[in-house]
Amino acid sequence: MKKAVIVTIGDEILIGQVIDSNSAFIASELNKAGIQVYKIISIHDSREEIYKTLDEMIPAADVIIFTGGLGPTSDDITKPALAEYFNSDLVLHPEAMELLMAFLKKRNLELNDLNRNQALIPNKCNIIPNYSGTAMGMWFRNGGKNIISLPGVPFEMKEMVTNFIVPQLVSEYHLHAIIHKTIITSGLPESVMAVKIADWEKKLPGYIKLAYLPSPGILRLRLSTVSNGNSMVNEQLNTQVEYLKEIIGQVIVGFDNDTIESVVGKLLNLNSSSLSLAESCTGGNIARMVTSVPGSSIYFKGGIVAYSNEVKQGILKVQKQVLKDSGAVSEQTVTQMAEGCRLLFQTDYAVSVSGIAGPDGGTEEKPVGTVWIAATSNRATIARKFNFGDNRERNIHRASVAALNLLRLFILGMENEINIK
User: Are 134 and 52 in contact (CB under 8 A)?
Assistant: First the structure.
């Protein structure tokens, strides 16, 4: 299998000012094409670091992809550094100039000396056309190795990787794509899941690999295999997924790029149902997740962030005596929050959340991480208690995921079939 290294260039990444999302995208695309990414590094924008990286990586990798440092300003030195390393002269490239002029004309911009320099390309490389910016990509070949330099602007880089680089590499190396099938689950922690599917995992064919990918509230099971042009490989992958459904069907949320919020949205749309939310400890995070799905306005009517008891009482009609006797974090309170919310917004479903996110506010009876979640419809009202942990940010996220998962099960009528964690 061919090996690749991804190198991001720029102090903005090294100081944490910019999050490196480019590497994740490139790694994903290379992996799908059948190229193994075995190292991702970030370096200072300097000739010395670029030279050192090339000296170390060229002997070890088949493909080296740089992103960043191709801008028109003096601090962008990737292009001259690569030109020097490969003993190239920077020359005006006709195609690069044509693309540059077309880009500037489309945006009513004038050509100046600074952006004209973007059409100067090392004469020992091929250009990678950039139709969305001024910085062309560069493709050097050295002793059978491919060294590629791309702009750091994500949408420019993505177009070049998808439309040019990956197809070229697949053709050059005659690659077999790596096929992934991801099963997205919620409700069982990794350790419990591993025990539950142990027999199934042992029976997996040797050419199918399983990876556990845990995140707060969600556990992804990724099946991977190499496509060899044989349709039996794909069929076997799908067969294994069907076997898995028989074992853990209730906790399977979706597949591949599904999210818990998009799956819930599909269920609500399928049933022509509406949703409202009453949030306390999650502070509107569930509403943010729900509305991140395109078209969510069809089924989501609105929500209340009822952080104080006064709002719980005044708007959601939670009884004062319930708050006094049971507290804000209780089955009785979230039940009345959900029911009050559904009446307020006149929706088919409502979900409520109240808990102790932390780091303070916990007691021996209700420690930090205690969260009550309720879901209601004209069919019934259910409430579940969760104990998440002592990290505030994770608690908010896990409570949000758990609330949407409880709603998913409630819509499907499966809320009592499994013990939700």
Answer: no
∠ Cα 368 373 374 (to 5°): 160
The b-or-e profile of 350-384 (16+ CB within 10 A means b, else e) is bbbbbbbbbeeebeeebebbbbbbbbbbeeebbbb
Residues 6+ apart with CB under 8 A from 377: 342, 348, 349, 350, 410
Q: How confident is the model at residue 319 (pLDDT cuts 50, 70, 90)?
A: very high
Helix (H) or strand (E) holding 267: helix 260-270
> What does the alpha-carbon distance between residue 132 and residue 269 come to, in Å, rounded to a whole number?
36
> Where residue 112 sits, what CATH number does that domain have?
3.40.980.10
Rounded CA-CA distance 162/160 in Å is 6
Distance of CA 60 to the CA centre of its chain: 29
373 located within any domain: yes
Tens digit of each residue's pLDDT (9 = 90 or more) over 194-248: 999 999 999 999 989 999 999 999 999 999 988 766 667 888 899 999 999 999 9
Taking the C-alpha atoms of residue 71 and residue 198, their distance in angstroms, rounded to an integer, is 52
Residues 259-266: what's their mean pLDDT?
98
* Total tally of structural domains belonging to the chain: 3
- Rounded to whole angstroms, how far apart are CA atoms 266 and 392? 30
420 is a domain residue: no
pTM of the model: 0.77
* Rounded Cα distance, 7 and 40, in Å: 6
Q: Where are the beta strands (DSSP E) in 291-387?
A: 300-305, 349-355, 370-376, 381-387
pLDDT confidence bin for 72, thresholds 50/70/90: confident
Distance (Å) of CA 351 to CA 122, 275, 328, 331, 401: 60, 8, 15, 13, 12
* Coil/strand/helix, residue 381: strand
| Residue 202: half-sphere exposure toward Cβ, Cα within 13 Å | 4
Checking if the pLDDT of 419 tops 60, the result is no
- The arrangement of strands across the sheet holding 370-376 comes to 300-305, 275-279, 349-355, 370-376, 381-387
Look up the domain containing 218 and give its range. Answer: 178-255
* Residue pair 387/377 in contact by the 8 Å Cβ criterion: no
Task: Verify that 205 and 342 share a domain, yes or no.
Answer: no
DSSP helix/strand/coil, 135: coil
